[in-house]
Design a protein that fits this description.
The chain is α+β, with helices and mostly antiparallel strands and about 450 residues long. Helices cover about 35% and strands about 25% of the residues. The strands form three sheets. Strands 2-1-5-4-3 form a five-stranded antiparallel β-sheet.
């Protein structure tokens, strides 16, 4: 017969009837510990105050019933190491003493710690998702446009905001009747084929031109645009309905409408402010920049609400516009409603007349490639240092400027001297040791040939 595998305890203690340790044996896995100092000492003394009570119970149980229940204690070793262990005590025959058998629970404790850490991570991720869902819900419901999420499989409405419910439902229908209804049932019959073709184009290409549709019992005109979103269990369409403008407007209004449409399609953010900095008009790029779902949520708000330093940045911008009528290359940071921060560059100008309107163009410069030339670095340090005011301390501004200027002139002098270190030091009025230190500091040791002046024979 094959021998059955045996498992050796991690610690075996031979105790007398009073609980004093007479012999201690460790498994090979714990050979690094020396427990000779335990011999002749009560087991209670080496387990600490908390473990001592559990040891007393195990010893008492073994005396009475011959074996004790398993109990966990933190066993402290002479080296100072403390290991979680599980012990039980067994009474020997003839009341010659008892054995305390211990198992190392360190691996179990580590797994428990990892499990707790994983649970905490899941908890944090859950609350992050809840926050994102709450923000999405606020933006979704606050939009002045009718927004719907429609299943791509059967064109049934999955979700709709308040404006969409009001657009599709007659006063006699309840709001909760909208979910699950097929979208085309609420579209005018003459527009259904156009809607099907648009959705098929979105499914194939990801986008399509807006179309005019008529919705609801009153067949009100809406401009429809949409996009395809990946979701569980399948794809869905995000459809946005904007009330159509009056198509019978007089011809003289055509030019302003065209200009406004061009502004709305600018790739850079554009807003019109009053003299107090309150938004009067905003294009779609600005709404994307500040992460606002509709123009109604931005109009009437102060532009400073989204600037990095709401009071300082807006006041500086308005003051310069009032003083010079125009502002160029005003750099700051936009903070979106969902927490993102974007570096922007502002150009602004004040209108003529009695309305005191200010046009502001906001350009995203976060992806702009930095200039590589030393002259550009020098110009940036000296010409645009005011852009950093309020973001860095004066000491740091001065230190950075001096470092850039010093590096620029050291390199220029090195090139003028053809790489001759002695001539470069003379041009700069430095000793050669000081020059070498600056070359090492700025990584210019290998710039040009290292030629030196040699005295004539």
């Amino acid at each position: 017969m094959a021998a059955l595998p045996t498992v050796q305890p991690d610690i075996t203690l031979l105790l007398d009837m009073e609980g004093v340790i007479r012999e201690a044996t460790l498994s090979p896995a714990m050979n690094g510990e020396s427990v000779d100092g335990w011999l002749g000492r009560p087991w209670v003394e080496i387990a600490g105050e908390i473990g001592g009570d559990k040891i007393k119970r195990m010893v008492d149980d073994a005396r009475v019933s011959g074996i004790s229940a398993f109990r966990q204690i933190n066993q402290r070793f002479p080296s100072g190491l403390e290991i979680p262990m599980e012990f039980t005590t067994v009474l020997l025959g003839g009341r010659a003493g008892m054995l305390a058998i211990g198992k190392n629970l360190q691996a179990v404790a580590e797994l428990q710690s990892r499990l707790i850490a994983a649970q905490q991570t899941m908890e944090r991720d859950y609350w992050k998702l809840r926050q994102i869902e709450t923000r999405y819900r606020l933006v979704f419901d606050a939009s002045n446009e009718a927004v719907m999420i429609v299943s791509a499989a059967n064109l049934r409405i999955v979700e709709a905001n308040r404006t969409a419910i009001e657009a599709l439902n007659s006063p006699r229908r309840r709001n909760d009747d909208l979910a699950g209804r097929e979208l085309l049932h609420d579209v005018a019959a003459e527009d259904r084929d156009a809607v099907r073709e648009m959705l098929a184009r979105i499914r194939e290409r990801g986008k399509a031109l807006s179309i005019l549709v008529h919705l609801g019992a009153e067949a009100k005109p809406w401009m429809l645009r949409g996009s395809l979103i990946t979701a569980e269990p399948g794809h869905v369409f995000l459809l946005q309905f904007t009330p159509a403008s009056d198509l019978s407007a007089p011809a003289e209004n055509a030019e302003p409408s065209t200009v406004e449409e061009l502004i709305d399609h600018l790739p850079d953010g554009f807003v019109v402010l009053d003299e107090a900095g309150v938004v009067q008009h905003a294009n779609q790029s600005f709404l994307d920049l500040v992460q606002v779902g509709s123009k109604g949520s931005a109009i009437g708000e102060s532009l400073g609400r989204w600037l990095w330093q709401p009071g300082a940045d807006l006041n500086a911008l308005l003051t310069n516009v009032q003083r010079h009528k125009t502002v160029r290359l005003f750099t700051t940071t936009i903070r979106g409603e969902l927490g993102t921060e974007t570096e922007i560059e502002i150009s602004a100008g004040a209108g003529e007349g009695g309305q005191n309107r200010i046009g502001v163009l906001l350009r995203n410069v976060a992806r702009r490639l930095p200039s590589g030339g030393e002259s550009d670095l020098l110009r940036q340090a000296l010409g645009s240092i005011s852009e950093q005011i309020g973001k860095s301390s004066l000491r740091k501004l001065v230190k950075n400027t001096v470092s850039i200027v010093e590096q620029h002139y050291v390199k220029q002098a090195l090139e003028l001297a053809g790489g001759n270190r002695t001539a470069t030091a003379e041009l700069l009025g430095l000793s050669r040791q000081s020059l070498y230190a600056k070359l090492s500091l700025y990584g210019l040791e290998d710039k040009g040939p290292d030629t030196e002046e040699t005295p004539e024979d």
